[in-house]
């Protein structure tokens, strides 16, 4: 099937390459010329395991191409919308300008084809109520809208796109449009449905939009819950890693997403819970999401906590001290630094006058090439640690987890480490002569 994907960022580029892998004929559209040039040359514009191979296979097969020219979408039976919905400056609400722009550009291409109507499929994360508004425009232009939220995780984006846990189809209130929408999208995802048997849930637009933000709110809540427990552990000398392991044995709670640390970041959880709160306020039901304000505050406090710990380890004065920050991306296996706790903490320490050396295997070179607000970017953890008065491990890359405490001890000016992700063995680091501080651990 001929498919277009509008927006070739972390979601859209992976979606486009995955659709080509499934045998479709795909064009990816983006307004960013550099990104389109890289993608067209089979080069991934961001680090995502397995993506570049998939991209190259697609481009080589002739089934995957990219363009900045919207005219290239002509002839496609299905148009996926995967543009960004970042937090608005100065507000919690989502900035919908990319989505509105993409829809406006698609409208001239929605006249029915000989095979039937053209589908617009929304994948971006949007405030509840958005799809209904877009559906009016799409229907007037002769097309059919389905809202099909995306649940991929960065670092696992390829696997999550080709083999998701579930698919959600938010369908039109018009039964015929709903039938056609489902039929055509089933054809696109035939491999996932027929071969893999992935559950597909049929629902209305509002429920589909809410499923996405509800899922991210639940995940954010789990993380802030365990981080709140870390605060209690810090006040009592208890160990949050043991607490998480013990409560996780209850199947109703589970072990996943209970890793206490410096909290959640990235281009999704932080802005999605905020946009959800902003939307609830517009709907007059802000009290229902009052708990998300707390989830957000607990998350912010984790970053403050690390700054306090670091300041204490530096005898109360940060200015002029050397700090090594291990990690700049918001989590390992990605170069994405959007709302990264590691980068935020690094910037705040530099702002307080510390000499901060940051290192990150994938985000490091990107950071070095941009205005990094006074941070030094080191090539390796060893380089960053050299001469440091305190070391902060803030993104749990394998390279940092595997550091040998004995081998790096003499590089530091003072052997003190804050393990912001609880991934090091405290006994091993202390035995090697380090002062070790975990998150919510004695
Ligand atoms: N990144 C993820 O892991 C993930 C997972 C699930 C859902 N989402 C959601 O998917 C959406 C996209 O997220 P992302 O992380 O890929 O964002 P992104 O910023 O990486 O990508 C958005 C892309 O859209 C392009 N763009 C902007 N306006 C355009 C237009 N009018 N026409 C064509 N292209 C345009 C931008 O240049 C950019 O390349 C967001 O709503 C996000 O919440 C993201
Ligand atoms: O126990 C945990 C788990 C995660 N994190 C942090 O939480 C953030 C988000 O992690 P993760 O959810 O793995 O990353 P994303 O790639 O942002 O994926 C989330 O956001 C996407 C965009 O909406 C959704 O599609 C995914 O399902 C959802 O997991 C990161 O900073 C992690 O370090 C913790 O602190 N503790």
TrEMBL record:
Q: Which SMART domains match?
A: UDPG_MGDP_dh_C
EC supergroup of this enzyme: oxidoreductase
Specify the UDP-glucose/GDP-mannose dehydrogenase C-terminal domain's residue ranges: 324-426
Q: Does the keyword Membrane apply?
A: no
Q: Which UniProt keywords apply?
A: NAD, Oxidoreductase
* Pathway(s) the chain acts in: Nucleotide-sugar biosynthesis; UDP-alpha-D-glucuronate biosynthesis; UDP-alpha-D-glucuronate from UDP-alpha-D-glucose: step 1/1
| Reaction catalysed by this enzyme | UDP-alpha-D-glucose + 2 NAD(+) + H2O = UDP-alpha-D-glucuronate + 2 NADH + 3 H(+)
Pfam families in the record: UDPG_MGDP_dh, UDPG_MGDP_dh_C, UDPG_MGDP_dh_N
What EC number(s) has UniProt assigned to this enzyme?
1.1.1.22
Q: Does the keyword Oxidoreductase apply?
A: yes
Which PANTHER family did the record assign? UDP-GLUCOSE 6-DEHYDROGENASE TUAD
Q: Which family does it belong to?
A: Belongs to the UDP-glucose/GDP-mannose dehydrogenase family.
The protein's matches in NCBIfam families, at most eight in alphabetical order, are given as: NDP-sugDHase (TIGR03026)
Q: What is this protein called?
A: UDP-glucose 6-dehydrogenase
